[in-house]
Amino acid sequence: MNDAAIEARNLTKRYDGLVAVDGISFVVNGGEFFGFLGPNGAGKTTTVRMLTGIIQPDGGDALLMGRPAGGIGAKQLSGIVPEMANAYIDLSGWDNLMLMAELYGVSLREARRRAGSWLQALGLPQRKDSLVKGYSKGMKQRLILCMALISDPELLFLDEPTSGLDVQSARLIKDLLRSLNESGKTIFLTTHDMDEADELCDRVAIINQGRLVAIDAPEKLRTATSSLRSVEVSFGGAVPLETLEKLPGVSSAKKLGDKYRLYTASPGDLVTSLVNHCRSCGLNIVSLSTLTPSLEDAFVALTEKGDGNG
Amino acid sequence: MADGAIVFQQVRRALAVAKKDIRIYYAKGPVVIFGILFPVFLFLAFVIGRNLTIDFMMPGLLGMVVFFTATAISPVVAPWETQARTLERLMSCPVSISTIILGDILASFAFGVLISLVTVLAGLGMGATIHQPLVFAAGLILAAFCFSALGLIFSAAPTSMPSTVMMLSAMVKFPVVFVSGVFIPLSDLPAWGRAIAFVSPLTYFTDLARHSLQASGHLPVGIDLAALVAFSILFLVLAMKLHQRTMPRRI
User: Fold this and answer.
1) Residue in A46, A65, A72 to test binding to B, most B beta-carbons within 10 Å
2) Residues of A in contact with B89 (CB under 8 A)
3) Which residue of A5, A210, A270, B190 lies most exposed, with the fewest beta carbons within 10 A?
């Protein structure tokens, strides 16, 4: 599947004169696992809300599977896990699922089959008849994911689905998302967790101050920020940070606990300089490793550039 | 999908919204207090110690009951859902804002009709007689729908505080009860009192109830029914327009 699942064209949203989302355009291919990253207040949730039809854009438009975003047709094909949304706490988990099935027009028989299957997959079958007010945060989030899946959507929007969850719940959700994507569903994931985006997404878009600053595969974003390559080293004795900053090829250095991280465009040359420096000073190297930039490094570099700070 | 099929689909989904409201909100404390207990005690305060017949009391009591019960749920659903953060989940489903509004109105309508029927049965048990049952049934259904739609107008302001909406609705509901011929029949009101009464939809239901139970209404039955239809359409259209504008601002 490679037809466009989402086409956003010049989407714009303003609140009280402030531009929350500033004319962003992008395409998510069918079957793709797409990450949408950005700092707090960057416009991620506003973008998701425009795509899912919860709010109307002030400018531009979007298509989901070729249908206008926000219309009944587009919503019918989408499953949504909104940020901060809740299930009905005065209903049981099962009743929440049946309500969603009715709102999506799923037949009762099919709804029961799917509800049983998703509750099983997400580890909730024993609690299905309990009121949701007694659920833990992780259980609620797993239920909300079940609610999004009850209509068997082609396209799944998830806004911070693992935020604040325990390790087991987060892992269960990530494993499920991976298998859903493998089965052909398109996934649009908003997250703060760079490791999660790196681990799951085919491509990521980074939004900052309402504008897209990058859109590419995580690996390509990492390698594009080559100035963030570094060498991490620890010594047998104390070394002044200023001494390390003066070594040839070091663009910046910082102390991390008992280690030093030296940023350079050429890690190989820096290792040679370090070894020579230690020999001449009689310093013992305890550990030394070269590091490629993480997605988080790339994210920070790209968003700081957008802020005019870096 | 054809237009008719879409309408049918959305009506079915409005029923699902109404079913959800019934299960969640009927037993909420403020609904029981302001929807059932309050009109009953207000009415008791009016009748106790006075030598009134059941046929005279019933139209007024029914007017209060249907008015208070039908406006007990519809105003508070939207702020409650905003506060509980379930509204965004609901709005992301393939239902229009009008469908959500219609579902809320239907839940409130059913509450109004149900509690009014209990009151009618109690009245019949105490010796009241319904002379025109069809007129009474049509009036009750129209009035419950009309007042449910009116209740939705109270909650159009995008607040997440149910107490704010209840205060606003109480400010409107109490004056309406006193100017609608609930305690004093329209025929006994002075001309200026009748002029005010005619702008209240509750006046027309109370008058219909007097036709049905006392066989002595002030206005022709057709006028009462037409006024309730007109108020229902006005309140429904207004509620939908207002919520279409304000509901996204609740998120």
Assistant:
1) A72
2) 80, 82, 85-87, 144, 147
3) B190
DSSP, res A264:
E
Q: Taking a C-beta distance cutoff of 8 angstroms, is the pair A101, A115 a contact?
A: yes
Is there a shared CATH topology between the A4-217 domain and the A226-292 domain?
no
pLDDT in tens, A29-44: 999 999 999 888 889 9
Q: Which among A84, A87, A99 is the nearest to B16, CB-wise?
A: A99
Mark the ranges of chain B whose per-residue pLDDT is less than 50.
none
Residues of chain A in contact with residue B12, where contact means CB-CB under 8 angstroms, are 102, 105
Residues of A in contact with B91 (CB under 8 A): 53-54
Res A310 pLDDT > 50: no
Evaluate if residue A308 carries a pLDDT over 50.
no
Where would I find the H helices in chain B?
3-25, 29-32, 38-47, 54-70, 74-84, 87-91, 97-125, 133-154, 162-178, 191-197, 201-214, 221-246
Task: Give A194's contacts (C-beta < 8 A, 6+ positions apart).
Answer: A37, A294, A295, A296, A299
On chain B, the residues whose CB falls within 8 A of the CB of A50 are none
Q: Which domain holds residue B136?
A: 3-250
Domains of chain A, by residue range, sit at 4-217, 226-292
Has residue A233 got a pLDDT over 80? yes
Q: Residue A95: closest CA among chain B residues belongs to which residue?
A: B20
CA distance B240 to chain A (A): 16
- pTM (2 d.p.): 0.85
3-state SS, residue A190:
strand
Residue from A175, A173, A150 nearest A161 by CA = A173
Q: What is the total count of domains within chain B?
A: 1
Local structure of B85: helix, strand or coil: coil
* ipTM computed for the complex: 0.89
Mean pLDDT of A250-270: 89
Tell me if chain A has a CB within 8 Å of the CB of B18: no
| 3-state secondary structure (DSSP) of residue A14 | strand
CA B211 to chain A, closest CA, distance in angstroms equals 42
Q: Count Cβ atoms within 10 A of the Cβ of residue B180 and give its class: 0-12 exposed, 13-18 middle, 19 or more buried.
A: buried
**Interchain proximity B24–A104, CB inside 8 Å:** no
Which B residues, 69 through 98, put their C-beta within 8 Å of a C-beta on chain A? 84-86, 88-96
Query: What pLDDT digit, counting tens, does each position of B127-166 carry?
Result: 888 999 999 999 999 999 999 999 999 988 888 888 888 8
Architecture of domain A226-292: 2-Layer Sandwich (3.30)
Closest CA to A239 of A271, A276, A272, A285: A285
Contact between residue A85 and residue A144 where contact means Cβ atoms under 8 Å apart: yes
Judged by a CB distance cut-off of 8 A, whether residue B246 touches chain A is no
The answer on pLDDT for A147 being more than 90 is: yes
CATH topology of domain A4-217: Rossmann fold (3.40.50)
- The beta strand positions in A50-90, using DSSP E, are 59-64, 67-68, 78-81
